[in-house]
Design a protein that fits this description.
alpha/beta; 5-stranded mixed sheet; about 30% helix
Length: about 160
């Protein structure tokens, strides 16, 4: 059961690269969830391709399937600020690797476009599912082995050496 004092904005961004300081957003998706009685319900959503005003590298197209042709008539990020603001302004944030990537990328784009700081409260919570996974399941070789094979690394079949 989840209880929260604010709505939860779940972010997923695609961009032209892996460095949030220099990458440009090419796709935005935000779900705004509200909680009542321990249940979450969808209170709003927004999804669009974004024209980054720079070419999309081939490796990004290979990874995301998003091409320059697909974004050529899409809005630029600075045209989306007012669409995103109501989804984010009073919400906690959530996503996968959002603390390392999506939130810094979103902040950088807001700054580049003169939209000011990321809308929202200073004391908001950032729920990063990747960090939760690492915290509760770990990321050591043994943790990964257990996740995918359902047993501890020490329980794996022993290799026998030829005599």
């Amino acid at each position: 059961m989840l209880t929260t004092d604010r709505p939860l904005a779940v972010l997923d961004l695609e961009a032209t690269g892996a460095d949030p300081a220099s990458a440009r957003i090419i796709q935005v998706a935000v779900l705004r969830l509200t909680e009542s009685g321990g249940a979450l319900s969808l209170a709003g959503s927004f999804e669009t391709l974004v024209d980054p005003d720079v070419p999309i590298p081939a490796e990004v197209t290979d990874l995301t399937g998003i091409t320059d042709q697909m974004v050529k008539d899409a809005p630029t990020f600075d045209e989306l600020g007012e669409d995103l603001r109501p989804l984010l302004q009073d919400a906690h944030l959530a996503g996968y690797n959002s603390l390392q990537y999506d939130v810094p990328l979103l902040k950088a784009e807001c700054g580049r476009c003169g939209l000011g700081p990321l809308p929202g409260p200073e004391d908001r919570v950032h729920l990063d599912v990747m960090r939760l996974e690492e915290t509760f399941r770990g990321k050591s070789l043994g943790d990964v082995f257990r996740k995918y094979f359902g047993k501890r690394l020490e329980e794996r079949p022993k290799k026998t050496r030829p005599a």
